[in-house]
Amino acid sequence: MFGRLGAGMINGMNDEPGRILRWNFFIGGHLSASVPVRLVERTDAGQLVWMESGTPMWRTKLPRGRHLRDIAPDDRPAGGYPVVAGRWPMGNALFYQPTGAAHSVLWLFGRGRKFRGWYVNLERRTHHGDDIDITDHELDINVAPDRTWKWKDEESFAEKTGHPVYWSADEASAIRDEGASVVRLAEAGTFPFDGTWCDFRPPPTWTTPPRPPVPRHPLL
Questions:
Q1: What is the reported pLDDT for 112?
Q2: Least C-beta-crowded within 10 Å: which of 21, 33, 53, 135?
Q3: 3-class secondary structure for the chain?
Q4: What phi and psi values does residue 77 have, to the nearest 5 degrees?
């Protein structure tokens, strides 16, 4: 199962499969969610982590019915929103986080752990020990099991372009170019869209991670 990313471990980091890391998701510099994930594999090419549906997590406490991405930065509290305990509401997913790239590729699994497609999250990623801080770039790509694809959230990406807490027009062009480079991999059927990892199952010894400590910071 392991070793499909290529040989060579990253020096100075604990690469033990099953190690619990923290996936911290930020929108416009504000924390949206902090979810524990398990390390599947780490090599020079990147790392794979597993996120389990229903995992205890922290989420930003927002006004009822609101999503952080829809709240204008000027309307957010200067020190960030408080966090409350919750559980990861989305399905199971295997994340591929390639070294030095501005995206992640997710294998999405539905009921019965059935593979239901890939999701490309365009992002900036920073590692601080066991913390994986994600700055979301809004624009994403859905890739179906037959590798047909479509952009997601193009309108809201355009609306955020030019705002100082998001990205400039030049940065927006680079973000879209990053997505286009991943699309070419999907169209060619090359890794990570070559069929590997579509049958992934976490080891039966992996229990659902406990809720981590309160996130260390609500703002980037």
A1: 85
A2: 53
A3: CCCCCCCCCCCCCCCCCCCEEEEEEEECCEEEEEEEEEEEEEECCEEEEEECCCCEEEEECCCCCCCHHHCCHHHCCCCCCCEEEEECCCCEEEEEEECCCCEEEEEEECHHHCEEEEEEEEEEEEEECCEEEEEEEEEEEEECCCCCEEEECHHHHHHHECCCCCECHHHHHHHHHHHHHHHHHHHHCCCCCCCCCCCCCCCCCCCCCCCCCCCCCCEC
A4: -65, 140
Q: What integer pLDDT is reported at residue 13 of this predicted model?
A: 59
Question: What are the pLDDT digits (tens) for 104-115?
Answer: 999 999 988 899
Tokens, residue 166? 């998001």
pLDDT (tens digit, 9 = 90+) per residue, 180-199?
A: 999 999 999 999 999 999 99
Alpha-carbon gap, residue 102 to 28, rounded angstroms = 16
Task: Give 102's strand partners.
Answer: none
Greater pLDDT, 6 or 198: 198
Average pLDDT score over the chain:
93
Q: Tokens 């996130």: give the residue.
A: 215
